Automatic annotation (TrEMBL):
Keywords: Hydrolase. It comes from the Bacteria. It is an enzyme of class 3 (hydrolase). This is N-formylglutamate deformylase. Transmembrane segments: none annotated. Its EC number is 3.5.1.68. One of its GO terms (molecular function) is N-formylglutamate deformylase activity. The keyword Transmembrane helix does not apply. The keyword Glycoprotein does not apply. InterPro entries: N-FG_amidohydro (IPR007709).
Length: 238
């Protein structure tokens, strides 16, 4: 994903990349989404469907529900991952958004992810074309409707099949940073990995550069969304 969107700074938008595999530490989870089935010394509190399914801030499973570990990991190990990777990432993201709001009066976060092709199996209704891009705004809670429409339109104009909020409406990042009433908007973008990757070998396919060039035009449009809303363009971060 960092390679697909690495042109963002050319269009004036800072690009923030996750520095570790999501199977190691999930930046799209809250720091307190700790899984008692994986981490020693963690007490179960309430019902969190993400944690219960093994997808807490330190994931217990990967695609298909396959276990990552043979047993539990220590609380210290989990806390070290959070301290060393999760917190620096979110501290930097908060600074970028604060700077954008201070400079332009508004900030837009485009939170980009790849989704397994199989994630859409069974999620779509019959006779509905399978989406390649899923836009998530937490059903209208994390961003202004006109911004979401412009993001969706940018991907559609580039030739992608786009859906909204199904099956991914946005997780921790959009929930935590999406504050449209405070002129801070957060939109999640999920891209089907099968467009550019062999999911079995985890290697780029021959289509990778084509998709990358196509996304360059999309990124240019995303970075320019602020035109017409405020006098200067807001910054976007990923």
């Amino acid at each position: 994903m960092d390679q697909l969107f690495d042109c963002a700074p050319e269009f004036g938008a800072p690009l923030l990349c996750g520095g570790a595999p999501r199977a190691y530490i999930d930046l799209n989870r809250a720091a307190d989404e700790l899984d008692p089935a994986l981490i020693e010394g963690v007490n179960r509190k309430g019902h969190n469907p993400r944690v219960s399914s093994g997808l807490g801030v330190v994931p217990r499973v990967v695609a298909g529900g396959r276990s990552i570990y043979r047993g539990k990991i220590s609380r210290l190990e989990a806390e070290q991952r959070i301290k060393g990777i999760w917190r620096p990432y979110h501290d930097k993201l908060a600074v970028l958004l604060s700077d954008a709001r201070a400079r332009f009066g508004e900030a837009i976060l485009i939170d980009c992810h790849s989704m397994p092709h199989e994630a859409l199996d069974g999620a779509m209704r019959d006779h509905v074309k399978r989406p390649e891009i899923v836009i998530g705004d937490r059903f209208g809670a994390s961003a202004a409707p006109d911004i979401v429409m412009q993001v969706e339109s940018a991907f559609r104009a580039a030739g992608f099949v786009v859906a909204r909020n199904t099956p991914f409406a946005g997780a921790y990042t959009t929930q935590a940073y999406g504050r449209p009433s405070r002129s801070q908007h957060a939109i999640q973008v999920e891209i089907d990995r099968a467009l550019y990757m062999n999911e079995r070998t985890i290697e780029p396919t021959a289509e990778f550069e084509t998709i990358r060039r196509t996304l360059r035009g999309v990124v240019a449009e995303l970075a320019a969304i602020g035109s017409g809303r405020i006098q200067e363009k807001p910054l976007a971060a990923e």
